[in-house]
Amino acid sequence: MPDKPGRNAIEVANVSKIFGSGEGQVAALDTVSVSIRENEFFTLLGPSGCGKTTLLRLIAGFDFPTHGEILLYGQDIAPLPPFKRPVNTVFQSYALFPHMTVADNIGFGLEMLGKPKAEIKARVAEMLKLVKMEALAGRRTSQISGGQQQRVALARALAPQPKVLLLDEPLSALDFKLRKDMQIELKRLQHETGITFIFVTHDQEEALTMSDRIAVMSAGKILQVGSPWDIYDKPAERFVADFIGETNFLTAAISGIGNGKARATLKSGSTIEATVAEGFQPKDNATVVVRPEHAKLTKDKGELSGTVDNIVYFGTDTHIHLRLDSGEAFTVRQQNTRSAGCGFERGDKVGIVIGNDAAQVLRD
Amino acid sequence: MATAEEVAKAAERRDIRGRWLLSAPALLVILLAATGPLLIVLVYSFLTPGPYGDVKWQFSLDAWTSVFLERDIFDDTLSIAAAHVTIFWRSIKLAIITTIATLALGFPTAYFMATRSEKTRDLWLFLITIPFWTNLLIRTFAVLQIIRNEGIINTILLKLGLITAPIQILYTDTAILLGMAYVYLPLMVLPIYASMEKLDFRLVEAGYDLYATRFQVLRRIIFPLVRPGVIAGSILVFIPALGAYVTPIVLGGGKNLMLSNLIELQFGQGRNWPLGSALSISVMIIVMVALLAYVRNAGSSGVRHG
Amino acid sequence: MAKNFSIKHQPGFTAVAATCFVVLYLPIIVLVLYAFNAANSTSEWGGLSLKWFRSAWQNTEVIDATLRSFQIGAIAAILASIFATMAALATTRTAPYRGLTFQYAAINQPLMVPEIVTGVALLIFFSRIKIFTGYSGLGYLIAAHTAFCIPFAYLPIRARLENMDLTLERAAADLYATPWKTFRRITLPLLWPGILAGLMLAFVISLDDVVITEFVKSGGQDTLPTYMLGQIRRGITPEINAISTAFLLLSVAIVTLFFFISRKRD
Fold it and tell me: For the domain that residue A298 is a member of, what is the CATH number?
């Protein structure tokens, strides 16, 4: 699924967005280029202020880029006002019209497009069914719950059958349980409608579970684009590795590069095999990352050794925080079993076994 | 095809032009029927009075000198115009006392309203809003009926035998003062209440927690936080009180003139439009000084809460 | 046992507040009572009667003045709220631009000038125009009332606009509504309570005005307040009480409506 070939629905080419002027200039987007494929669930992921919402607003037409082009199926839409773009948005605050019913909200876009009444009625009914809101069609939007408002917002944006659907952190206002349900619901809707989704979020877990591809953004730039698997297991940069999940950073000397693999000599003196990006040159002071769940603790010798500093219980697993002999911090995540504790205590001297393919060299 | 940036710039220019066009009718009406004519008043204050009202287009400073001075008709010497000074002094004095009186009454009232439960607060607000929306002339007339010699106050006092003859309140400065305090009280209460309603009473709790007495809490916590409302209320009372026209006519009986009556006189029997204009500009200057003090105070009150 | 400590209590405040409310309403109640007085003078009580209401109703001067007040008030309030709505749309929800502060100050300027000064200024200005054009109709009063009503109408409209969610209009544009359609279908319906409040406030302010009207009106253009002021100056009869009572009733009706509209949330 990740590498479904297809046409590009959206092409963002060298787009910059600069706010303010003179001394107070801020580049919210700095020469960003990215292609989003047809029928893809594409996520823009990053911390607040990274430029992800700005990019979404440029695609929607609420703002104009300072430089660059935004192509929708090959046509530059950057100068068009929002009401001339076949692109619809699900807003973070939903932005449902409070003086209209649920059905009127859903039919609004079609009405504005001048569709005949009968067609609007049929399409609204279809949309209500799609989001399972048939019973509440006549309600005012202020009389329905947050989750229901979310569904109406989705139906409203989907009703005109946009070429691309933009979703601006649509789940952030929902509580945990509802958010989980809606994540599944959104995937289902995307699958059923076959519409390209561009989803903005700061929640890495949400991005990993829902997306076909993810673009990780920071400080107005896109750092890495790839499948959730790529992003999590093969982070290219320190920011990506740090932002997505928890990770251990180790200093290492890199040598023997070939075939996407390299030898990393750790501070402890032991050498492990690590994956490396193409074109990486041997280096003394490189950083290698190891996910906490890809390392194992042993009472014998491992690639690394250290002392148990702290043990934190998480229900499904236990995090064991260590201080390596080299002085670096390291965390190991261990699946819990029903019968016993984690088998280690604070102050224990332990060895750490790093599995094959567990380490990744960063570009930084 | 234009680039997105050019489109954005053009859209911004169009937006600003559109905004000017949108506000143009309001600005034009205000310019023609409120602000603009003020400039004509300024011009008129430097002209010579015409024989039957209006002006002769001849420059003269007479109007301005006669604001506070008068020329003796026999020997042409200048002396202080006692009548004008009295009227200026009475107007300013009455406006200040009215402001203080409404503040003394309005502050506790606003506090009382703001400390009611959410539900009843609206009712109290409603009760203070009704007089606010009621015609000022009617309310002044209502005061007249209470304080006149045959009015309810004198009648009750007479019946109780506390007095043998009615107390003459009507047509005195006291009557004007009572009337102004009465009609302008809601103007003081409403802005103070607006500030008070936003007051976070957890701050008051914190004050008591830190050993403040009731008076100290009032003086050190509540008052500084609602000060913007107090200043706004004072301005809202002071400006119309200074220019009060109806109250001195109805309750002062035309004997105890205030500035507005003096000005009216110049445009009526006095037939001295330039002097009337100079007096009007003088009132504007006093008001502007008061407004400036307001802007200063409101600006320097660094207290923010909410 | 000690009384529970109330953090909201301040000694004497409740008493002052109670006095204020009594003092505010007592004169109004007396005024209304005397409107129903059967006696021919306001000095004595002659039993209940509607005769002063009847007398006011049959007084053509009163009826004329009332109709004139309503006419001026209605036209001025409608014009003022239309202009104020436009001005509010122009001066809210925007990044600061050159002239914005000027527009804001100019719109509120009539609030800063004592009525007597505006009255004098308009007397001078309009008397010139009267000589120049020969027109001496109600237009002058309507223009003056519209001008001083604009800042009052502007107040609630602007407040409503500032609290409105801009994303709603963005959502409409996203759903293919042109700017005009967005205004008609989204902005205007949501702004409506503010406009209504502004309209009523403007109407009441126009009905209340004595000073500016007194200076601007030509002969035979008395509004109800200037007519009443003239009567009070000559001497009072219970007829004035009757007129005042009717006027008061109207005010209470409008405040109630205003309260209902401005408290309504959606």
Answer: 2.40.50.140
Q: In B148-272, where does DSSP find H-type helix? A: 152-159, 173-197, 201-209, 214-217, 223-242, 246-252, 259-267
Task: Choose the closest CB to C186 out of A62, A89, A97.
Answer: A97
Q: Do B283 and C14 touch (CB under 8 A)?
A: no
**What residues contact residue B49 under an 8 Å CB cut-off, 6+ apart?**
B55, B56, B63, B271, B272, B273, B274, B275
Looking at the fold, whether A24 and A172 belong to one and the same domain comes out as yes
Domain range for A56: 8-233
Nearest to C198 by CA among C161, C246, C247: C161
Under an 8 A CB cutoff, do C31 and B189 touch? Answer: no
My answer on whether A188 and A284 are in the same domain is: no
Q: Is residue C9 part of a domain?
A: no
Q: In the 8-state DSSP scheme, what is residue A289?
A: E
Could you give the number of structural domains in chain C? Answer: 1
Which residues of chain B neighbour C98 with C-beta distances below 8 Å? 16
Q: What pLDDT digit, counting tens, does each position of B221-278 carry?
A: 899 999 989 999 999 999 999 999 999 999 988 778 899 999 999 998 888 999 999 9
pLDDT in tens, A329-364: 999 998 888 777 778 888 889 999 988 788 888 876
pLDDT tens-digit profile of B15-45? 899 999 999 999 999 999 998 999 999 999 9
- Look up residue A221 and give its amino acid: K
Q: Could you tell me the domains of chain B?
A: 4-79 (no CATH), 82-300 (1.10.3720.10)
For residue C142, the domain's CATH number is: 1.10.3720.10
Contact call for A112 and C167, based on CB within 8 A = no
- Residue-number span of the structural domain to which C149 is assigned: 56-263
Best A64, A66, A76, A85 member to test B by mutation, with max B CBs in 10 Å, is A64
Give the nearest partner residue to B5 out of A66, A70, A76, using CB atoms: A66
CB proximity C39 to B under 8 Å: no
Average pLDDT over residues A51-60: 94
Distance from C-alpha of B169 to C-alpha of B148, rounded to nearest angstrom: 7
Give C88 to chain A, closest Cα distance, Å.
Answer: 21
